[in-house]
Amino acid sequence: MDTPVDLRSDTLTIPDSGMRAAIAAADVGDDVWGEDPTVALLEERVAALLGKAAAVYVPSGTMGNLTSVAAQTRPGDEVILDSESHIVQYEVGGAAAVAGVQLHVLDTGTGLPSAASVRASVREANIHHPVTRLLCVENTHNRRGGAAFTAEQIDGAAIAARESGLRVHCDGARLLNAATATATPASRLVERCDTVSLCLSKGLGAPVGSVVSGDADVIAEVRRWRKRLGGGMRQAGVIAAAGVYALDHNVERLADDHANAAVIADRLRDCDGCIVLRPDIPTNIVVLQTRDAAAQVASRATTEGVLVTRMGPNTLRCVTHLNVDRVQCEHAAGVLARAASTA
Length: 343
Ligand SMILES: *Cc1c(COP(=O)(O)O)cnc(C)c1O
Description:
This protein has 2 domains: about 15-250, Type I PLP-dependent aspartate aminotransferase-like (Major domain) (Aspartate Aminotransferase, domain 2), CATH 3.40.640.10; about 255-340, Aspartate Aminotransferase, domain 1 (Alpha-Beta Complex). It has 14 helices and 13 strands. It is about 40% helix and about 20% strand.
């Protein structure tokens, strides 16, 4: 294969000609003034999809999570979440630095705190304690191998949180992958979540942007935080149009990405140089535990035109997306099997 097969991330997708045409045709206005019709349309579409009353377009998933955390906490409050969460691992400590909260991390093993662990983590009222204010869940879970959680699993944690007086945020960067893999409407997955952040720039293939959904009050507060952080955008309809296009064209095909990831996982299952770590409900991510140093395996694969990312000293991650097809994934799996097994 001449063109490299790029499995480093589903953020690498390039807008196709249909999406670029939608961008070119977008109606725009000043969105900080509430006058961009395309941004408004995108927000309405996502709110409806997730069964929420309101939504706000933000520049990134990181800002979606940060504004959601900040809008629902006060400095010094505590936030319960899995130790491998994107918020803990990949957001430059923003929750601490900007929202001023203390992250109470749980090594959940699966990526989702159990109801019992949520209850056990909520601080008793005591003059010495921080106030436990928020539970964050992640669906699908990026560092836990793209694990999808069912509505019942999310409910378990969310109901326990709400009974303890906490609010619940879902980092749903890949929520539509979870909806696809569990054959559940996305709105059902987040029924008991107060805020949900959804990325348009991952498997959905838009170049930029995320949307935070919730009730009107919390979204008004998220909107204020977006402005505070410098995320108020003017004629943002030019990028929001790509998000609308993605919702129209790139949701149903997420199943193809999952099938392609399964092809890679199945091919590598009987490879002697690596172990495939697949969650109970897998999606578009395949995590490999390599016998040889992950960096070495990755660089061997690179010389054969297959790009993957190193997640740890002996861990590699492959992500399928709309710019890699079945044939490329079959080819990549063969290359990775060889790269992992070569002594
Ligand atoms: C990618 C991702 C984000 C944030 O995305 P950016 O748009 O890159 O800031 C948040 N959460 C999860 C689980 C992600 O995978």
